[in-house]
Amino acid sequence: MSRTVLMLPGDGIGPEIVAEAEKVLHRINDSFELGLSFESGLVGGAAIDETGEPLPNETLERARKVDAILLGAVGGPKWDKLEMAKRPEKGLLGLRSNLELFANLRPAILYPQLASASSLKPEVVSGLDIMIVRELTGGIYFGQPRGIRELEGGERQGFNTYVYSESEIRRIGRVAFEAARQRKGRLCSVDKANVLEVTVLWREIMDELAGEYPDVELSHMYVDNAAMQLVRAPKQFDVIVTGNMFGDILSDEAAMLTGSIGMLPSASLNSEKQGMYEPCHGSAPDIAGQGIANPLATILSGAMMLRYSLGEEEAAKAIEAAVSKVLDQGLRTADIMSEGARQVSTREMGEAVLAAL
Amino acid sequence: MSRTVLMLPGDGIGPEIVAEAEKVLHRINDSFELGLSFESGLVGGAAIDETGEPLPNETLERARKVDAILLGAVGGPKWDKLEMAKRPEKGLLGLRSNLELFANLRPAILYPQLASASSLKPEVVSGLDIMIVRELTGGIYFGQPRGIRELEGGERQGFNTYVYSESEIRRIGRVAFEAARQRKGRLCSVDKANVLEVTVLWREIMDELAGEYPDVELSHMYVDNAAMQLVRAPKQFDVIVTGNMFGDILSDEAAMLTGSIGMLPSASLNSEKQGMYEPCHGSAPDIAGQGIANPLATILSGAMMLRYSLGEEEAAKAIEAAVSKVLDQGLRTADIMSEGARQVSTREMGEAVLAAL
Ligand SMILES: CC(C)[C@H](C(=O)O)[C@@H](O)C(=O)O
Ligand SMILES: CC(C)[C@H](C(=O)O)[C@@H](O)C(=O)O
């Protein structure tokens, strides 16, 4: 059984952090005799510079064939003036939709060693452990029609379409109910069913699925209230399931509750468990090339990859334990630095994880 | 000059809190000789129960004629099973759109007396004073087409349309630039211009307006990042301008940063400065009828009404000063109660404000 992982470093700090994750995965591959082989490719701004396209055909073809993808980040001011179809983000969105990676899992976990990094009071966030399940290949991100048109009289109008079918809702709902079942058994579905018809259907399908999962306690919350409750009392949540746009907003808000977004991995899966794994943070162009970025979210994304796409739970746990160990040792990159800790570079952090393995 | 204010208590705690605000406004009307007359009407669930409609024609006709409206809140579980067109929320949305109340002003202010109520660390939120300018009569709330349709093959699909024209963006943009000009001169426009075409147009128009307001510093932020930055470092913001849906989410998130949403008023204005004023919080059906709700957000909404629609700055300031005074006196309703303070009922709080006037 030969399995292949595609590395897509992308832009900004992407190459630096993926390099460290790659070293960790190579080491794990050897020590656990996983038989993984590694390829790498271009996506985002890096691909635009090289080929003119944010998602070159060659990258897409390879992506289709591999078992899993580890992505750094895409985008940056250099490409911000391009028309939307040619921007780095389209590389990411193209991978998501072409591979049908509809299930985006975004944990928001507070590491006890980093509790003080949060802007919230310790008692509000200590022990925080939320899983956000975001639909990733539908909703307003991909809905048609879309564009900017000219109205009679000459003024322009921009428009996008927020759309979900029953089957799209059902498949993301199942992923969320399964996730809740393996956790504390509580699922909160977030919508705006008092205003938007598309989310009336969303709510209806979630209620219908609840019958299949009697062991999971389903609740519903409007998105504005969810944005508030995450600030007020985030520990009330176990698993949250929501659409693409609300998920984009709430998962970033939830991640920031921990104060250490440089620590948070994510997984995007399709129905064959093929997956793309990436840190929750962006390409951070302001600190790119300085060797100070935090590689831990990418390293932990590697662990998620081993768990969800490659079925290598032991190897995943080994990486997570190594990360925990370096935090215990007091090593910190600049973004999570605090008094009394030792500040290290991107590479030093990567080396420390290797040593801890 | 005779000016009329329409009171719409609505549902849940609405009647209790509006009753206190009404007493305060009557007193101010007398002492400042404002010559206001007051009417009241039905909206939301209360109107459904009485007339079958969330926005009876009579209410709408009166609303069109008055100078300003003070609304409590609408909605509750009692009406949650009704089809969308007949729900209490449609009363609120119908008033907003029929009166073209496109400019929603939502301050998020931390009262120094209530600093400890926030779930954020004191240094992160002390002195917080953000103004969110939300577009209120367009965007996905009102976009057509919308609904739930049957696809070929029999499955259903829900859909809504996110749409803005140049002129809609321009008029809310102007309100926001003007607000920034009267504050610290910084305006952050929030969009998702890396994914949604409608917000590409939004960003373009905001950039264009910036030329007319050289004294205001305009920046742009993606909505996911804004949701994060509000948690990480909310004091970086002065005025935020955004569309209806993002504004719904971010204004509630920002309000909750203060920990005392029971204190926050809001204004919804049209181009003639006619306005509807309401507390930021909802109808709180769980505590309705118990006499424990906080009337201060509604009382402060009355102050906003005097300021923005009636041009009575002195009277507005008198109310705000009275509210500050009762907080200094240590009086607190249950939602903002803390050690060492004196807990009072809805009515006692209203009486205390009257006494402080
Ligand atoms: C880069 C952008 C297109 C993307 C998104 O909006 O999905 C990012 O914010 C994310 O959450 O992965
Ligand atoms: C009640 C609801 C329709 C409303 C909205 O979504 O606008 C409320 O949340 C608000 O923010 O005023």
From TrEMBL, chains A, B:
Enzyme Commission number: 1.1.1.85
Q: Which UniProt keywords apply?
A: Amino-acid biosynthesis, Branched-chain amino acid biosynthesis, Cytoplasm, Leucine biosynthesis, Magnesium, Manganese, Metal-binding, NAD, Oxidoreductase
Provide the cofactor list for this protein: Mn(2+); Mg(2+)
Q: What is its main location?
A: cytoplasm
- Catalysed reactions, semicolon-separated: (2R,3S)-3-isopropylmalate + NAD(+) = 4-methyl-2-oxopentanoate + CO2 + NADH
Cofactor detail note: Binds 1 Mg(2+) or Mn(2+) ion per subunit.
Q: Could you state a single Gene Ontology molecular function term?
A: 3-isopropylmalate dehydrogenase activity
Where is the site described as Important for catalysis found in this chain? Answer: Y141, K192
Q: Where does NAD(+) bind?
A: 76-89, 282-294
Q: Which InterPro entries match?
A: IsoCit/isopropylmalate_DH_CS (IPR019818), IsoPropMal-DH-like_dom (IPR024084), Isopropylmalate_DH (IPR004429)
One Pfam entry for this protein is Iso_dh
List ligand-binding residues for Mg(2+): D224, D248, D252
**Keyword Amino-acid biosynthesis included in the entry's annotation:** yes
For whether the record's keyword set contains NAD, the answer is yes
Q: Which family does the similarity line name?
A: Belongs to the isocitrate and isopropylmalate dehydrogenases family. LeuB type 1 subfamily.
Protein's name in the database: 3-isopropylmalate dehydrogenase
Organism encoding this protein:
Marinobacter daqiaonensis
What would be the name of the gene that encodes this protein?
leuB
